[in-house]
Specification:
With 166 residues, the chain is an all-alpha fold. Helices cover 70% and strands 0% of the residues. It has helices at 2-19, 24-39, 49-68, 74-115, 123-127, 148-163.
């Protein structure tokens, strides 16, 4: 089950880096498998329904505040809720801290590259796809250049390797 979880994290990471969004089908698939693992007693981290549901609620609810202020995309929020089903409440804080440090480094590097006199176009690599590349001709919306769900997924993989060795 842990291998399936890692595969899901990898898919989220790739999708978010390439498209700067996490599709609902991917979030729902991860949540459904997490619920099935709980129901079948195959939860890979050894906790039950209470911890999983608390993790999902806090994961979703906490990031919902950032979404409400336009600082985060809805896919990031939904992914955090599904992620909470997998890792429970106790793992969310260290995962958020590492993911936020990675996202902060991404933003700082993007900012510096935009102002680098030799080639400000290097910042486009960190910016993600443009509206035209997404096929979107709708009204322009705020750019989401930091793939936070990808950083959450990467931090979770690191937590699986190093954070649980106590």
């Amino acid at each position: 089950m842990a291998l399936g979880f890692l595969l899901w994290l990898l898919l989220v990471t790739i999708y978010d880096f390439r498209q700067r969004r996490v599709p609902n089908w991917l979030v729902l698939a991860g949540a459904a498998v997490a619920l099935a693992a709980l129901g079948l007693g195959m939860q890979p981290f050894g906790f039950g329904w209470t911890q999983a549901l608390l993790g999902a609620g806090v994961g979703f609810g906490f990031l919902l505040v950032f979404y409400a202020f336009g600082l985060m995309g809805a896919g990031d929020v939904k992914f955090a809720g599904a992620l909470g089903l997998w890792v429970g409440l106790g793992a969310l804080a260290p995962i958020w801290i590492v993911a936020s440090l990675l996202a902060g480094a991404h933003g700082a590097l993007w900012y510096l590259l935009q102002r680098w006199p030799l080639s400000p176009r290097l910042a486009l690599i960190l910016s993600g796809p443009t509206s035209a590349a997404n096929g979107s001709s709708a009204t322009p919306r705020r750019a989401r250049f930091i793939p936070y769900a990808a950083y959450l997924a990467m931090a979770t993989a690191a937590w699986m390797v190093w954070g649980r060795q106590s």
